[in-house]
Amino acid sequence: MTPFENSLFSGFGEGLPLLDMSISVHQYTTVDLSVANAELKSIEISDPEVCQQYIDSILTRNNAAVAYGGYLEKRNLYNGYSTFTDEGQPQRNIHLGLDLWARAGTRVCAPLNSSVHSFKNNSSIGDYGPTIILSHQLNGIPFHTLYGHLSLDSIRHIEVGQSIFKGEYFATLGTPDINVNYAPHLHFQIIRDLGHYSGDFPGVCAAGDVAHYSKLCPDPNLLLKL
């Protein structure tokens, strides 16, 4: 691990909450949405209703309330979205964050003391929808966390520079019409350097860019320890 990754892993004990704290960690289960999952070969996982049915089947099968996973996962979930296919460029289909699939309206809490860096409604079909980026410091190292696919209410009463404390609820998950065509979930991403971005940052990359983006965006589970 890099020094930053080691700090994320070792600096916060057993792990940090992200969704409604009334949901026990024992109610979380993993989900595989990769191209290698044989269960997905016969279904159109990019259809939000079909995706929701599959997520529900995973939750029921495991008696769970939240399904999570997806870091550096190659997915068919983005097929058909022009957002992920630039003319003459390789398709972007490698997921750079951790997804937590749960019901719309589920509350999101800050895993660390934070300040609001930026927020935006990335409203193109297949994008994040309402998005919040928080700023943090860890052993003197600045970094950011991104929260995508939120409700519109999440960005209506928030201000740049606003302090949000560890464990404080600051957002809720959006519905498919608001999170621009996905089954309800939270996209959570750690970003070492935002560059020029504000309220947005690539959450999916092409295979040839994985080495670059995986350094900028380490595994969120180093922090969450699910």
What's the topology here?
Elements: H1 3-10, E1 28-30, H2 48-61, E2 66-69, E3 94-95, E4 98-101, E5 107-109, E6 114-122, E7 129-138, E8 141-148, E9 163-164, E10 169-172, E11 185-191, E12 204-205, H3 210-216, H4 221-224
Parallel strand pairs: 1-2
Antiparallel strand pairs: 2-4, 3-12, 4-11, 5-10, 6-7, 6-9, 7-8, 8-11
Give a quick rundown of the structure.
The chain has 226 residues and is α+β, with helices and mostly antiparallel strands. It is built from 4 helices and 12 strands, in the order αβαβββββββββββαα.
Highlighted features:
two-stranded antiparallel sheet, 226 residues, 26% strand, alpha+beta, 15% helix
Describe this structure in words.
There is one protein chain. The protein has helices at residues 3-10, 48-61, 210-216, 221-224, and strands spanning 28-30, 66-69, 94-95, 98-101, 107-109, 114-122, 129-138, 141-148, 163-164, 169-172, 185-191, 204-205. By secondary structure, the protein is α+β, with helices and mostly antiparallel strands. The longest helix is centred in the N-terminal third of the chain and has 14 residues, at 48-61. The mean pLDDT is 92.
